[in-house]
Every structure is written in structure tokens, then in C-alpha cells.
Design brief:
The strands form four sheets. A 13-stranded antiparallel β-sheet has the order 20-19-18-17-16-15-27-26-25-24-23-22-21, covered by helices on one side. Strands 1-2-6-3-5-4 form a six-stranded mixed β-sheet, with helices on both faces. Helix content is about 35%, strand content about 30%. The chain folds into three domains: about 40-170 and about 195-245, Cytochrome Bc1 Complex, Chain A, domain 1 (2-Layer Sandwich), CATH 3.30.830; about 265-465, Metalloenzyme, LuxS/M16 peptidase-like (Cytochrome Bc1 Complex, Chain A, domain 1, 2-Layer Sandwich); about 480-690, Clam (outer membrane lipoprotein receptor (LolB), chain A). About 30% of the residues are buried.
Length: about 700
């Protein structure tokens, strides 16, 4: 028995080895594609302009409604970019007058239903996913939200905060930065295809703008509604006609797509991101249109060049040369405006130029030498076999039918595409590569570490540095914009400096130990207390160690860069953190006192607070800071400045009060600080030890 088991085990292993040995990718054979009968989608149109698309699917007792809306963010006014996005968000999150947000959410939750509304670049969408038994009762609610969104002010403000929070984080990821800025390089930063939502454009959007946008976009003449699920078409038609019969027709939206004025030329563009050790590279130029007769040949060419692990870029740049962590590309062809051709690579900083040359070389080779018969055969088989997944569910079939109608494509576009791909020849691939790819006129964008990359990019021409700083809106107020007396300002600043630096005391750095409490409603108990030690070397260096419940976090600011560590592990640092810390050092009263001779203060007047007479001076900075100086002691009682906070969703007035002044080695130091934001306590710090070096 034991011998038999051993024999069977060996036989199994040998058999498996034989089977597995036949599974190499270049030995795979692909079966001939079977014909697939796409089910017919029933369509009908109401007098108010709404077109319906119906497809039965009795697999599950569910009904999915998908509406397409002829609108898009390309219609956003230039000063209100984000209007379409914001309108879609608040329509859903704000509910309607009859079904306010809380009531709407409870109804949907009680029925395990989902409802969503969003607006993209060239279209909007609204979806309702429900159980079959609940469709009749929830459809009127869905229609009411589409027709009568209430746009409550609290939901508008919440949506604005979310968008601003997203804006504040958009420079965190280098790959996202690369794709975003490459698109702006191709289309132009002020083009409707390349512009960005900004804090100011979001602030410019008012409730009436959203109401007007909704009224112009969500009329019946702009709606296409598809329904797939467990229903009878004849019965569903009756339900829909009754439900939408009184839906207003509205005015049909005319989507205009501006022409892209593009000049082919090689450029080299760079974005410095000092907290990474690799480069993200994109290179390419303007792409084409979906209706191009060469569309199928271009897609086959694209698959040969960058079709995953079997594509030339992956095989040669990554596998053979070992120059990339990832390599990718695509020749995009849009329906309404031209797409973008790009080839990209993620590589070590030291091999940035080598990776660029390797990618360019593969594009040139594709133009100069015909691909092999095997490459064409394998590519077409892989590509055609993958296309079946575009129609592997009835929901996808319905959505594609609607999308073709929205795009103005023929109903048999997919079938024609498949036949055109089958007809592509070796000569076609080389022809379109020569005609549409311009490797000597590509725009190159590198996101990387300038210090590590060095001068590698100079070989491609003059390097254009791209600024991705997120512009803050104007936060000036009357106190900030008003002008004061410079002569009196210098007098009071010198008085403050002499009070802080006894007998003109000079020093290099100050080290403090403190107990700090942060106040925030989102923290457990509304606050969190931690201890920290900091060493500040003026004017622009700082190291802080914060003792958290999970361990010590060390944060270092040096040469305009921030490094954060948790033990031995390096933590990612938001790009804006270095600027925030640098600004905090510049407005520190010790820094102001040390640089009193070079500052240009303005005296803004006198005021009395709790019986104490204070002199107000303004220190001009990027965000002007105001010090209120006790006229008897010369010490600042508090400082105040205005900044922009994405978390708060707008302008924030920050006030820091100083007290418990003590003299340490000839330096006056406030051992207690309390900071408020818009009048609410934000933090409180008690210093137990201060050392002057």
C-alpha cells in the first residue's frame, strides 16, 4: 500500500510538472472566438425628450436604473471651475424639499437601495439600484430628487470643504501629479480640458449658481435613462410613462468642445518633489479621435508597444534593461475632443535619462522595423479575447448601448471594431506608428528629486520648471490691507526687540520642552495632550520630537524640506508642511526680534485690552502678522494673522496669546501660549524648560 501511494504521488508530481511546463505564456494557444449574440435593447421616447433603454435580466430580483445627462464640467465658467462637480454632490447629499438628506438616507438604508448623482467632464449620471419589490415605491423619490433638489446651505458648505480638502492633498502622490500636469502640458493649463479646481473657484460658487446649473442641465431633453433587471418590458414601459409623463422637457444643452491648438515640439519639463527617491516620467503628445478610420490599427499598435507584460516597453525597458519599476503607455482616442498619446516609466533617480532614451528607442524601432507575424497574431488574439469582457453582463450591454448613442456612434460600433481589429496587418501597424507617433517631438515631463537627478535632463534642452503650488485665495481683511506708520512701527518693534533680547542678547538656537493640548471635536474627548521637545535654529531649521501614545515622531525642517520619522521608519510628508513650518518660524517673536533691523513694521494704532494699553504693529510677510505690544513692558501680549484653511473651508483668523513671561539667559520667553482659530480654542502649550544656545 505504501509503495502504491509513493507511486501515485510521484506520478502526480511528474504529471503536474508536465502540465505546468506547458503553461509558459509564449506557448499558450487561444481558442477561436465563438459567436456571441448580444441581446436586443428595447428603446422608446417620451414627448418631453427622455429616451429610455430597457433590457430584462432575471438572474437576480434587482433593478438598476442608470441615467445619462447631457452636461459636463466643460460648461463651468472659468472663475467657477468645480460648479458641475459641486452641483452633482449636493443634489444627492442634500436631497429634495420633500425628502431632505436625513430622510432620504434613511429610506434608502431601510430598503438596501443606493442612489448616486455625479457630473464629469463631458456627461452627468444618476443611478438607482433597488430590489425589485421596492422599485415602484422608490422611483418617485428618485425623480423628485432629480427635479427638486433643495441645495441646503449646510450641505453646500460640507461639499465645498470636501473639495477643498481634496485640492489640499492633490500634490501628495507623484504619479497623480505626473498624469495631471502632463494633461495640462498637452491641452494647456487654461484649456477647459486642463484647468483645475482651486480654492478660489470653489469659494466663488454660490447656491444660485448651482440652482441655475441644475435647471439648465436636468431637463427631459437632456436625459437618457436605461433600466436593466428583473422586470417585464411591457409592464415597465407603463410604469415609466406614468412616472415621467410630467417631467419638464427643459432646454436641450449644446455641448461645445473647443478646438485644441497644439504645436508638436520636444520640450523637457520638471517638477521637483524632494521627498521621493525615484522619477515618474511621462512623454508624448496629442492623440486622436475615436472616429478615426485608423482607430483599430492604432489600438493594435498600442497593444504591441505597451500591452502589459507582453508589450515591448515592458519586455525591453523593464525586463531586459532593468530600468523601470513600472512602464506603461497608451494612444488615447476620445470622442468629443482629441485624446493624448503617452508613454511612461517609473525609475530610479539615477537612471532617469537612460529610461527616457530606452522608451524613445522602442517607439523609433516600432516605426523603423515591421513587427513579426507572431507578434501580430499573439497581440490580436489577446486583444480580441479580452474584448468579450466589455459585454459579459447585461448591465454592460445596456450601458454601452447608451454610451454609443450619447457619443453619436453607430449601434454596431463594437462589431465593426472587432472586424477592423481582425483585418489589421503588419504593414498597418508600422504605417500608423510612422503617421501618428512623433518620438522626436514629444513633450517630456519628469516628477522627481532634483538633487538626486542632477543634470541628466539638460541633454534634452532647456528644462522648464513647473510650479504646482496650490494658490490660496485672497484672505486679506481691512486690518491686513490697511497701511500704517512705518516710523512709529520701527519704534515699537525696537521696543519689543529690546524687551525680548536683553542688552541686545544674540543666540543661535533655543530648545524647549512643553506639554501641548490640541482641541478638536474629532479627537477623543475633544482634545489630546502630548509632550514634545523642540530645537529651533533661526532662521529656518527646526527639530521636534513628539511623544505620542504609539511612540515618538521626529519631525525635521532643514533646507526647506521636512522629514518625518516614527522610530526608524520614514513617514510621508505633505508637500505643504514645509511651507507651513517655515512660515511659523518667520512669524515667531524670537525671529522677529532677531531681525528687527531688517523688518519693515507699520504702526496700526493703539488699543486697550483688559485695562492694558497695547500698540499694534504689522509685520509685512506673505501672510502679514500683527503684534499687540504692552506699552509698559514692551512684550507682545498676543499676535494675530489671517490664513486659509482647507479643513475649515475658508478664511481663518489665528490669534496666539503670550503669558507667564520669564527671563532665561538674557532672553524673555513666554512659558504659556494659547491659540484660537476664529475665536475657538485650538491649542494650549505650557513650557516647563527653555534652554538658550
Amino acid at each position: 500500500m505504501k509503495t502504491l501511494k509513493t507511486f501515485l504521488f510521484v506520478f502526480f508530481i511528474v504529471g503536474c510538472t508536465t502540465v505546468f511546463a506547458q503553461q509558459k505564456y509564449d506557448q499558450l494557444t487561444y481558442p477561436k472566438l465563438k459567436s456571441y449574440n448580444i441581446p436586443k435593447v428595447e428603446t422608446f421616447k417620451l414627448r418631453n425628450g427622455i429616451t429610455f433603454y430597457l433590457l430584462e435580466d432575471h438572474e437576480l430580483p434587482l433593478i438598476n436604473l442608470h441615467a445619462m445627462v447631457r452636461t459636463g464640467s466643460i460648461l463651468d465658467p472659468s472663475g467657477k471651475v468645480g460648479l458641475a462637480d459641486l452641483t452633482g454632490m449636493v443634489m444627492r447629499n442634500g436631497g429634495s424639499e420633500k425628502y431632505p438628506a436625513d430622510s432620504l438616507n434613511k429610506i434608502l438604508e431601510d430598503h438596501a437601495a443606493k442612489m448616486s448623482i455625479s457630473i464629469g467632464t463631458t456627461s452627468g449620471s444618476a443611478n438607482l439600484n433597488v430590489l425589485k419589490k421596492d422599485f415602484d415605491s422608490l422611483l418617485p423619490i428618485f425623480i423628485d430628487v432629480l427635479r427638486h433638489p433643495s441645495f441646503p446651505k449646510d450641505k453646500i458648505e460640507l461639499a465645498k470643504k470636501r473639495l477643498k480638502s481634496s485640492i489640499s492633498r492633490r500634490n501628495d502622490d507623484s504619479q497623480s501629479i505626473a498624469f495631471r500636469e502632463f494633461r495640462r502640458l498637452i491641452y494647456g493649463p487654461h484649456s477647459v480640458y486642463g484647468r483645475l479646481e482651486q480654492y478660489q473657484t470653489i469659494d466663488n460658487i454660490k447656491r444660485n449658481d448651482m440652482i441655475a446649473y441644475h435647471q439648465s442641465a436636468f431637463g427631459g431633453s437632456n436625459l437618457m435613462i436605461g433600466i436593466v433587471g428583473d422586470f417585464n418590458i411591457k409592464s415597465m414601459k407603463k410604469i415609466l410613462k406614468k412616472a415621467f409623463d410630467h417631467y419638464p422637457k427643459g432646454k436641450s444643452t449644446n455641448l461645445e468642445f473647443p478646438k485644441v491648438n497644439y504645436n508638436y515640439a520636444q520640450t523637457i519639463n520638471f517638477i521637483n518633489k524632494s521627498n521621493i527617491n525615484q522619477s515618474v516620467v511621462l512623454m508624448g503628445h496629442l492623440g486622436g479621435f475615436r472616429k478615426n478610420p485608423d482607430y483599430a490599427a492604432l489600438q493594435v499598435m498600442n497593444q504591441v508597444l505597451s500591452g502589459g507584460f507582453s508589450g515591448r516597453l515592458m519586455q525591453h525597458v523593464r525586463t531586459d534593461l532593468g530600468l523601470a519599476y513600472a512602464v506603461f503607455g497608451n494612444y488615447n482616442s476620445n470622442v468629443f475632443y482629441p485624446g493624448v498619446f503617452y508613454a511612461g516609466v517609473m525609475t530610479k533617480s539615477a537612471t532617469t535619462a537612460k529610461a527616457i532614451d530606452a522608451v524613445k528607442n522602442e517607439i523609433v524601432k516600432l516605426q523603423q522595423k515591421p513587427i513579426t507575424e507572431k507578434e501580430l497574431k499573439d497581440t490580436k488574439e489577446q486583444f480580441l479575447n479580452s474584448l468579450v469582457f466589455r459585454y459579459d453582463s447585461r448591465s454592460k450591454i445596456l450601458n454601452k448601448k447608451m454610451q454609443n448613442a450619447y457619443d453619436g456612434m453607430p449601434s454596431d460600433a463594437f462589431e465593426k471594431y472587432v472586424n477592423n481589429v481582425k483585418a489589421v496587418t503588419i504593414a498597418d501597424v508600422q504605417r500608423v506608428a510612422k503617421k501618428y507617433l512623433k518620438p522626436d517631438k514629444m513633450q517630456i515631463l519628469v516628477v522627481g528629486n532634483k538633487q538626486q537627478i542632477g543634470d541628466q535632463l539638460q541633454k534634452y534642452g532647456k528644462v522648464n520648471d513647473i510650479d504646482i503650488t496650490i494658490p490660496e485665495p485672497n484672505v486679506s481683511d481691512n486690518a491686513t490691507s490697511a497701511k500704517g506708520d512705518v516710523k512709529q512701527g520701527q519704534f515699537w518693534l525696537e521696543k519689543m526687540a529690546n524687551a525680548i533680547l536683553k542688552d541686545g542678547k544674540k543666540f543661535k538656537s533655543v530648545t524647549t520642552s512643553e506639554q501641548s493640548t490640541q482641541y478638536n471635536a474629532q479627537l477623543p474627548g475633544g482634545k489630546m495632550t502630548m509632550s514634545a521637545t523642540s530645537t529651533v535654529t533661526f532662521p529656518d531649521q527646526m527639530t521636534t520630537k513628539i511623544n505620542t501614545p504609539g511612540g515618538t515622531v521626529t519631525m525635521t525642517l532643514k533646507d526647506g524640506k521636512v522629514e518625518r520619522k516614527f522610530g526608524d521608519r520614514t513617514l510621508p510628508s505633505p508637500p505643504q508642511l514645509a511651507e507651513i513650518l517655515s512660515e511659523s518660524l518667520k512669524r515667531n517673536y524670537l525671529s522677529i526680534a532677531l531681525n528687527s533691523k531688517s523688518e519693515k513694521p507699520e504702526f496700526m494704532g493703539m488699543k486697550t485690552v483688559d485695562g492694558t494699553k497695547l500698540a499694534e504693529i504689522k509685520i509685512p510677510q506673505k501672510k502679514p502678522v500683527h503684534f499687540f505690544i504692552d506699552t509698559s513692558t514692551g512684550l507682545p501680549q498676543y499676535m494675530q494673522y489671517t490664513t486659509y484653511s482647507p479643513a475649515a473651508g475658508g478664511k481663518v483668523k489665528v490669534k496666539t496669546t503670550f503669558s507667564d513671561w520669564k527671563t532665561v539667559d538674557g532672553i524673555s520667553y513666554a512659558f504659556k501660549e494659547v491659540t484660537t482659530q476664529n475665536g475657538k480654542k485650538a491649542s494650549e502649550s505650557d513650557y516647563n524648560k527653555v534652554s538658550i544656545n
